[in-house]
What does this fold into?
Amino acid sequence: MGRFRFLSFSFYVFMTVVYEDNHIIVVNKAPSEIVQGDKTGDEALPETIKRYLKEKYSKPGNVFLGVVHRLDRPVSGLVVFAKTSKALARLNEMFRSGDVKKSYLALVKNLPKEPEGELIHYLVRNEKQNKSYAYDKEVPHSKKAVLHYKLIARSDNYGLLEVDLKTGRHHQIRCQLAKIGCPIKGDLKYGFPRSNPDGSISLHARKICFIHPVSKEKLELIAPVPEDNLWKSFCLDK
It folds into this structure.
């Protein structure tokens, strides 16, 4: 296990730094934050982090920050950014080659038929709808999507799934769970009947494991779940 530096420093209300060194910064994103600018005009997370770095280190001029991967706006959890061009290039290659392992938590009302299993579908993205559609067999313009899920807890009304991504497709977890009749709580786009009060969906990027692109230490980072009574009812982070 590598050496970790967990910081409790919180800034701009929404975001908490989970890990930071000279080359990378990993944050726990709130559902309201966007990783990439959109038509709302709201400030994107990279800009918030740049302001944080500029103020914390009294940096003159522009601050370099590389976006390595993204989370959908209504999703919470871990996002990795590069603070140097060397780290960015290496992290990009690690994500492309599947050397970064990501684990998610999802709250669903309908439980899968099997408590554990692998889902394989072929996803087609509709750009206009910003939505993906899952098929059991390969179809034109589809991309293979694979994930592993496990039911790790349940309450009277919901089940808690741990999801490990094997591929990284557009809306993959949301789309594949909906395909088997288990849409994520609050996800109106994929068939859940009601939205969450804050506009989030109950999907959380919980854990990420990778070899540090420069120091070569093994990092295993975990993000606390959102401050929500339902999440807390599963005794997470207590």
User: Anything to note?
Assistant: Helices lie at 45-56, 85-97, 172-179, 229-233. The mean pLDDT is 90. The radius of gyration is 18 Å.
